[in-house]
Structure formats: C-alpha cells, structure tokens
Amino acid sequence: MIVPLATSSTVFPASLFIGIRSLLMQKVYSLQDGMDKGTPFALACVPACARLSPMEQQTIRTQEKMAYGFGCFGQNMLYNLMANFLLFFYTDIFGILPAAAGTILLVARMWDAINDPLMGMLADRTHSRWGKFRPYLLFTPILFLPFAVASFSAPQFSHSGKVVWAAVTYICFGMIYTASDVPFWAMSSTISEDTKVRSSVVVYPRFMATVAVALATLATQPLILLFSVEGKPERGYQMTSLVYSLLTVICFLIAFLAVKERVVTQDDQKPRFSDIPKIFLSNKPLLLVILSGFFTGIGQTGKLSMLIYYAKYNLSNELLYTLLAGINIPFILLGIATVPLLTRRLGKKRACIVYYLIYALGSLGFFLVGWDNFVLLLFFNCISSIGMASPQVIQTAMIADTIEYGELATGRRSEGTIFSSQTFLAKLTAAVTSITIAATLALIGYQPNAVQTATTLAGIHTLTTLLPFAASLLGIIPILFYPLTEERHREIVEALHQRRQRD
Q1: How far apart are CA 180 and CA 188, in angstroms?
Q2: In which domain, by residue range, is 394 found?
Q3: Is residue 41 part of a domain?
Q4: Which of 33, 146, 379, 411 is the most exposed place for a label (fewest CB within 10 A)?
Q5: What DSSP line would sit under 218-233, residue for residue?
Q6: More confident of the two residues 17 and 165
C-alpha cells in the first residue's frame, strides 16, 4: 500500500525522468499510388489547417512509456472507488432511494454530453510552453481532493437535500475528471504518429489502470473498514477517497515530468463548438469504436458494480467481494500482456473480437453454474477476466488512429475533441449501468440491508452474469465494420504528409 505521506520517495524517481527524450529519426513519406476511391483519401486535396513536425520513425524509451502508464494509476484507483462504491454508498450509507440515485447519474451524464466535448475543444485550443495537453496533468489533479471527499460525505439533510448534495458534488467531480482524463489520453496521439508505436505506448497506461483497479479491489474495502468510525460509516469512504486523490496527484506529476509531446500542431483556425458534430459524424471508424465501447462498457461496469451486492447477498459474506474481484487480477493482466502479440498476428479488429468472445463465454459459464458451486463460479469468473480489459487497450489505439482519418476528412486535427469521446463514454456507460442496476434492483424487490427473496437473489445473479454476456456480443457487431487496418492508416498518414509538404 502506498502511503500518501511518502511523496518524496515517490516523486524523487520521477525527477530522474526529466530530460528523457525520444530519438527522432528521419524518414521521408510519399503518397502511395492506387489509393482506394470513394474514401476520405479523395479529400487529400483539401487545404490543411494543421501542420505537424515530421513524425518520422521514432524510438520511444521504455522509461517514458512507464511514466505515461503511471499517470493512469492513481486516477483509476479513485475512479474504481467512485464507479463501484458510490451507488452502494448512496443507497446503503447516505440513504438515497435507488431511483433518485439513478436520476442523479442521468442528469450528470446529460451535462457530460456538453461538458466533455467542450473540454476536448478547450484542450485543442491550448498552446503553452509545456505543450497542448501536458499542462492539464499538472494543474487539474489537485482539484480531486475536495470533491472526491465531498462525494462520500453524508450530511444530515432531508432526502431532497441529500439528493441535491449528491448531484452537485458528483457533477463537479465528473467535470474535474474530464479536465484531467481527456488531455491525458489525447496526449497518446502526440507521443507518436506511428500506429505501431501508439499501440505499444497505450499498453502501459491500460496495464497500470488494470493494476490500479486490482489494487483498489483488494485495498478499498479494508481501507474503508480501517478508517471507519463507529456511528460514522461515511468516514471510511472519505478517508479512502482522500488517499486515492493524493495518489492521483503524485502519479499525474510523474507523467507530466517525463512524457513529451512530439506531434506539434500549428492551427491558425481555433476550433468552435459548432465544429464538434462534424468532427464526430465525418469519422465513421470513431463512431464504430464508441458504439462498441458503449455496449461492452455497460457489461463490464455492470459486473463490477454488482459484485458487492453478489458477495453480500448471494454468497452471504460481504468480504468475499475482495476474493471474487481480486482473484481476477492475474488473468486480467495476462490478457493485457497478450495484446501486442495478438494484434500483430490478427490485427486490432480481429484481436478485439477474440477478447470479446472470451469475456462473453466466461460470463455465460458463470451464469450456468450458479452461486452454489463457488469453485466453478471462480473458474468461469477468471476465464472471463482474460477478455475483460484487453479490448480497452486495443480500442484506445483505434481511437488514436481515427485522428488522422478525421484530419484527412475535415482538414483539422482534433485530438482533444476526439478523445473526449472516450472520457464521455466511460462516464456514460457507468451512468447507464448504474441507472439500469438501480431500476432493476427496485424491480426485483431489493431491500438494502435485509434478507433478500429468492427472486431477488436470482435477479442479482442474472445482472452479474448475463448483462456482461449480452453486452460483449453486442460490442462485437460495430467492430466487424471497423475499416482501418494498419496498411490503410499508413496510407492516410502518407497522404497527410504529402498534403502538408504541398501546403
């Protein structure tokens, strides 16, 4: 467990990263003949409004990749706490009705539909001595501290007052999360323009995110119990959120110090809010990845959110949540570790489908064995975990590849706006999942802190297993139509370089 007071021992290694720069090697790009007709390649004659420094063949050092990955660590521990425990906190600790809690999440996501693209556009308009996206890693994380703690506070208000308090604190937390998450992921597209390099880079933050979720799974409940005070159960949640918030600040600082932006844009035209629909609607590959991520995100978030209910009521032991979730860790990491090999052999598209099928089949097996056979339950839970986080690694690289596709189609490079879709997607799926779970819990007769009926237990089991099964199968459908191969992306990059040279 990382003690937040030990910041000096954590930050000192980060200082060693200062000055690390990737070696840039020159390579001349030329436009290939015989480009596909009827595709955005025909737009190569459109005047460019963005100019990049030559992003020729590069070597990105492992230290920089690790530092970039570390930036994802603290934030994901905090996000895991919010995503998997906040609904439970609202209903069982704060005393908010499930339907009201679902409404709060719905309102927050309606605001995010406006706020997240605006944040992406703001990042795209940023030009500083630190780059376009790095400044946000330095200044926004500190704001997590007050709003994370406030989100897990339980003031003695009326039910209406509690709903207002929860809505305000949660929405503010979401805005801060957006202000840090959008620039962080958008920065992956400025580290390199090469799709293979990007794929290798994004493995690190996704790997560290999984490690963070794993550690949060193991540590969150013990920390909550450690910090809890008799008569004030919210104290444990508050202190745990404080620890994770401090860790977030440290991890983002390490990424800020070590990671460099190499794709330098010079945009004379400032992006406008009215440009956002065109940016998304003209980018078919991006829309397909978003749709796939929406389906599978609901399944994954739903399962993680239901495990605490499953352990407490179906398995009759709340502490089994740590075992049920924690035993997945090595299998999740195994899945992520196989991503580079599988994508090289099959390509991003087919590899993504393979992982979806693994997750779906494992979830189906989990459903069929029921909760009376704990050993088989754990077995199928572990099988599904191999395909749980791996598609997210691949889809992050896919989104980065769609930036050049969108630039060729619109004449504008919009990294921040495009990656805001990933941040919005994460929050949207969390909200839709929580709303679905809250509504379904009410429908099956769930009563907090009570002995549940057989119907309720069966409903909890179904939500935990068949929801991720169905969501994974739905997620495969959009990926089947994803058009960008490595060869196609390389042609787009070469077309963009020729256009910049001409302009």
Answers
A1: 14
A2: 58-260+273-502
A3: no
A4: 33
A5: HHHHHHHHHH-BTTBT
A6: 165
Q: What is the mean pLDDT of residues 37-66?
A: 51
Give the pLDDT score at 46: 32
For residue 176 the two structure tokens come to 């801060």
Which DSSP string do the residues of 262-328 spell out, in sequence order? ------SSPP-GGGHHHHHHT-HHHHHHHHHHHHHHHHHHHHHHHHHHIIIIISS-TTHHHHHHHTT
Collapsed DSSP state (helix, strand, coil) of residue 58: strand
- For the chain, what is the domain count? 1
Report whether 99 contacts 442 (CB < 8 A).
yes
Which amino acid is residue 123, in one-letter code?
A: A
- 351, part of any domain: yes
In angstroms, the CA 343 to CA 346 distance is 5
Residues β-bridged to residue 331: none
Over the stretch 109-144, which tens digit does the pLDDT of each residue have?
788 878 888 888 888 888 888 888 999 999 999 999
Other CB atoms within a 10 A radius of the CB of residue 345 amount to: 10
Assess contact for 416 and 124: CB atoms under 8 A: yes
How does DSSP assign 361-382, residue by residue?
HHHHHHHHHTTT-HHHHHHHHH
Q: Compute, in degrees rounded to 10, the torsion defined by CA atoms 183, 411, 31, 419.
A: 20
